[in-house]
Write a structure and sequence with these properties.
- This protein is α/β, with parallel strands linked by helices.
- The chain contains 28 helices and 21 strands.
- The strands form 4 sheets. Strands 9, 10, 11, 12, 13, 14, 15 and 16 form an 8-stranded mixed sheet that branches. A 6-stranded parallel sheet has the order 3-2-6-7-1-8, with helices on both faces. The protein has a 5-stranded antiparallel sheet with strand order 20-19-18-17-21.
- A hairpin with a 2-residue loop joins strand 14 and strand 15.
- Helix 5 packs across helix 7, helix 8 packs across helix 9 and helix 13 packs across helix 14.
- The longest helix is centred in the middle third of the chain and has 21 residues.
- It starts with 11 loop residues before the first helix and ends with a strand.
- It binds a DNA duplex through helix 4, helix 8 and helix 24.
Length: 741
DNA sequence: CCAGGACACGTTTTT
DNA sequence: CGTGTCCTGG
């Protein structure tokens, strides 16, 4: 059989990885080294050459996006080469998606109700709030967010309350008490949070060896993407699945491990070769993305980390342009500089969406947005609220959850008074109390209380009308198409009108989103995944239930405007895996990046450095690094040094755009307490300067130029001028001796 | 129910 | 400083 198509166009290391004899592999894939391609070709190789059935291959990712990408690349490969294979035959999914599937198939063995519900972090926090009420715990003293963090952290480590050592420490005692009660509530209500899905899937195998055995036999090959991001439970789960017989292909990059703070264990990738037998290690170091200078900079930074598995990116590409470093006067100036560079870039015929502005923290985006807005440049911010996280969507989904299962307490609580129908907090409290006493669902409690005429007439009517709506919807939804159900929900609950009537642009946007939900329902295909060789299958799950599960496990991409030609703004974290011809890394200042919260801990500092490495390696052609010498943060001015990471970049691949010596600016400047304009940062006219924006001026030394910006007032007022000869400069009005032309 | 004021908070985020 | 949340008074 001719399988050359699987190796054609691959470099030596990639071929080694793809064509390795059956066994476990550690593929250390540097940024831009063709990782996904190798993964996909390896899977095809296993099928074509090793004669593995597609049914015996599992591929695990972290995000739904990555899973979809893998699926589509597989199908692309198969269809281009006319292989009669469909990616649907394989188990390709996220850790959570696959674990959820296991729990669905083995709900009894996992000690769950068949229709168990998934709690997102929002639902989880609400539940924790209820636990606080029940246990009468002071949320001033023990913030609920902290309890949430604690519970998830323990679960990520595979720890149940009974595994945790009881101590005298009041913090641990309190958290443990909350954890116990929370867990009991979840179990009673048939609810699982995200961490629980993984933990319980692990325990399922731990406690039911025959089930584990089945999956071990079924999946002799498991491939894992972004291995450096696995947490303890995920690692344990993989080890258990692999056993002694199966092979695991772990693909990852220790240098891009940036999620330690949420439980990812970089050690996992380092331990892999010891814990799995006969591991072949392949390094993918040839980079197909960036110019030589960009890679040189990236290598120069990351080499300062200890304990790396070791990898050095190289390219056949040209050295390319030098990296530009700009020392901005403040964050306004930084934003302005970036916007001007983008305008130049676009003027040369490039598109907006080939540019990305990366920053360490979301707070930085505002100033950048303002600058882009001012110049009328379209932009898109990544990682905002996602589709299924929106309040209006969650409300609609809550009704759908109640249709699917009226004992869904999280859904019940969310919409019993949405749209408002006169069920007040007191009434809900009463229902909650009754349910707790009876150990029943809120729905059941409400029914009982109505039958016993516990409510005041008014509250009773309101509750009854809520129950009626859900009952009616449930009846109307039987055997109906998903989009029809959604439509019914929006109409009969009054949700659509309710949200549309919200004031401002909000109403319109929310209405549109709800319409979008109907579209999503129409487009939804119930999982027709092959069930060959499975102990049980999920054919008996209603499309509604399947949709709800999908919605819970896939927050939905920020769909709108995806194809608009807009400059991309995002944090360094969300930039991982992406690439852009032109990249700006903004705010590279000590205290901000590396962030002061990570400053003193060497481990966290290394993670910040990896983040910097990720940032640099996003750039394909040109990278600008900027920092602000003065930055207004939380209302007060901070003076920062350039980030240590910038200093780690080899000096021969970076150039300063504007030499500090060429800049005139006050050594110290005193803020006038009442200078509103000054605090705002800038104005359109030069107030009392006698000059206007856009005015042409003459300077005794620099010659002719145009005023592009003002800042401040009175004697300390500064002005930015684009000089014909010497370019852009900041000058202090007082000393500049400008003449209008 | 809602507006408006007091108040807390301020790294990164997927599932 | 700007934002989001909580609470109170109308």
């Amino acid at each position: 059989m001719d399988v050359s198509y699987l190796l054609d166009g691959l470099n030596t290391a990639q071929r080694d990885a793809v064509s390795a004899p059956a066994g476990s592999q550690l593929i250390l894939a540097g940024a831009g080294s063709g990782k996904t391609r190798v993964l996909v070709h390896r899977m095809a190789w296993l099928i074509q050459v090793e004669q593995m059935s597609p049914y015996s291959i599992m591929a695990v990712t972290f995000t739904n996006k990555a899973a979809r990408e893998m699926r589509s690349r597989l199908d692309e490969l198969f269809s281009a080469t006319k292989q009669p294979i469909n990616s649907r035959a394989m188990w390709v999914g996220t850790f959570h998606g696959i674990a959820h599937r296991l729990l669905k198939a083995h709900w009894q063995d996992a000690n769950l109700p068949q229709n168990f519900q998934i709690l997102d972090s929002d639902d989880q926090l609400r539940l924790i709030k209820r636990v606080y009420q029940a246990l009468n715990i002071d949320d001033e003293k023990w913030p609920q967010k902290q309890a949430q963090y604690y519970i998830n952290g323990q679960k990520d480590e595979g720890l149940r309350p009974q595994h945790i050592q009881e101590t005298a420490d009041p913090y641990v005692r309190t958290m443990l008490q909350i954890y116990r009660a929370y867990e009991a509530d979840c179990q009673r209500g048939g609810m699982v949070d995200f961490a629980e899905i993984l933990l319980r899937a692990h325990e399922l195998w731990l406690h039911k060896p025959h089930i584990l055995e089945h999956y071990r036999n079924r999946f002799p090959f498991v491939l894992v993407d972004e291995f450096q991001d696995t947490n303890s439970v995920q690692y344990a789960w993989l080890r258990m699945l692999a056993g002694k017989e199966s092979f695991v292909t772990a693909v990852g990059d220790d240098d891009q491990s940036i999620y330690g703070w949420r439980g990812a264990k970089i050690e996992n990738i380092q331990r892999f070769t010891q814990d799995f037998s006969n591991v072949q290690t392949v390094r993918l170091e040839q980079n197909y993305r960036s110019t030589g200078n960009i890679l040189k900079a990236a290598n120069g930074v990351i080499v300062n980390n200890n304990g790396r598995l070791g990898k050095k990116l190289w390219t056949e590409d040209v050295a390319g342009e030098l990296i530009s470093l700009y020392a901005a006067y403040n964050e306004q100036d930084e934003a302005r500089f970036i916007v001007e560079r983008i305008q130049e870039w676009v003027r040369k015929g490039n598109s907006n969406n080939s540019c990305a502005i990366l920053y360490r923290s979301n707070a930085q985006s505002r100033v950048l947005e303002e600058a882009l807005l001012r110049e009328g440049i379209a932009y898109r911010i990544y990682g905002g609220q996602r589709f299924y996280d929106r309040i209006e969507i969650k409300n609609a989904i809550a009704y759908m959850r109640l249709i699917s299962n009226c004992h869904d307490d999280a859904g019940f609580e969310r919409v019993i008074n949405t749209p408002t129908r006169g069920v007040g907090g007191k009434t809900v409290d009463d229902i909650r109390l009754f349910a707790r006493e009876q150990g029943c669902s809120l729905w059941h409690a409400a029914e009982q209380m109505l039958a016993n005429r516990v409510f005041s007439p008014r509250a009773g009517n309101a509750v009854q009308s809520f129950l009626n709506i859900v009952v009616q919807l449930t009846r109307d939804s039987e055997n109906q198409a998903l989009d029809f159900i959604a439509q019914q929900v929006l109409e009969h609950t009054g949700l659509l009108v309710f949200h549309q009537n919200e004031k401002g642009e909000k109403g319109q946007a929310r209405g549109e989103n709800l319409q979008e939900l109907i579209t999503a329902c129409r487009a939804f295909n119930p999982d027709t995944n092959s069930t060959e060789g499975e102990i049980e299958n999920d054919e008996d799950l209603s499309p509604l239930q399947q949709f709800l599960d999908t919605a819970a496990l896939d927050a939905g991409e920020t769909q709108a405007d995806e194809f608009e030609d807009a400059v991309q703004l995002m944090t360094l974290h969300s930039a991982k895996g992406l690439e852009f011809p032109l990249v700006f890394m903004a705010g590279t200042e000590e205290g901000l990046f590396p962030h002061k919260m990570s400053g003193d801990d060497p481990e966290r500092l290394e993670e910040e450095r990896r983040l910097c490495y990720v940032g640099i390696t996003r750039a394909m052609q040109k990278l600008f690094i900027t920092y602000a010498e003065t930055r207004r943060l939380y209302g007060n001015e901070t003076y920062n040094n350039v980030s240590r990471f910038v200093k780690e970049i080899p000096s021969d691949c970076i150039q300063e755009v504007r030499l500090k010596a060429a800049v005139t600016r006050p050594v110290s400047f005193h803020r006038k307490p009442n200078a509103q304009i000054l605090r705002k940062g800038m104005s359109d006219v030069g107030e009392d300067t006698g000059f206007n924006l856009g005015q042409r001026v003459q300077h005794t030394v620099f010659g002719e130029g145009v005023i592009v910006h003002f800042e401040g007032q009175g004697p300390t007022a500064r002005v930015q001028i684009n000089f014909k000869q010497v370019g852009s400069k900041w000058l202090v009005m007082q000393y500049a001796k400008l003449e209008a032309i």
